[in-house]
Write a structure and sequence with these properties.
- The protein is 28% helix and 24% strand.
- By secondary structure, the protein is of the alpha+beta class.
- It has a domain of 79 residues: 2-Layer Sandwich (60s Ribosomal Protein L30, Chain: A), CATH 3.30.1330.
- The protein has a 3-stranded mixed β-sheet with strand order 2-1-3, with helices on one face.
- The longest helix has 14 residues.
- It is globular and about 50 Å long.
């Protein structure tokens, strides 16, 4: 049996996204997804340390794969019909003065997808 400890948080996140997308449709076509996680600077850091960290990679918890899984699960059935529609995915997390998550969802345009380096 599987228990999702984040079910309530995912539901809260989904409510926010649903409100922001009230005039948009749920995607049913293949999608390219880009996610930027702007992570908070620690309040305990000095001003110098905070400035040094800005726009640098965030390499501590939470892990990037856990953040992306949370977003994919929370947005399933809202932004896209099923997360199986995501054919390409890019994510990154870095420190920022304004913590936020930016999602870019691009429907597949029908063009040929180029091979990744070393796979052609």
């Amino acid at each position: 049996m599987y228990f999702d400890f984040q079910k309530k948080r995912k539901g809260d996140y989904a409510i926010i996204i649903r409100e922001q997308m009230k005039d948009s449709k749920t995607h049913t076509e293949p999608l390219r997804l880009t996610i930027e996680f702007h992570m908070a600077l620690s309040d305990s850091w000095s001003k110098k340390a905070r400035l040094k960290a800005l726009k640098k990679p965030h390499v501590s918890v939470p892990d990037l794969d856990n953040l992306t899984k949370f977003v994919n699960d929370a947005l399933n059935g809202i932004v896209w019909k099923d997360d199986a529609l995501i054919y390409e995915f890019q994510a990154r997390k870095f420190y920022s003065e304004e913590p936020k998550t930016i999602l870019t969802v691009e429907p597949y345009d029908g063009s040929v997808i180029p091979a990744l380096p070393g796979l052609d």
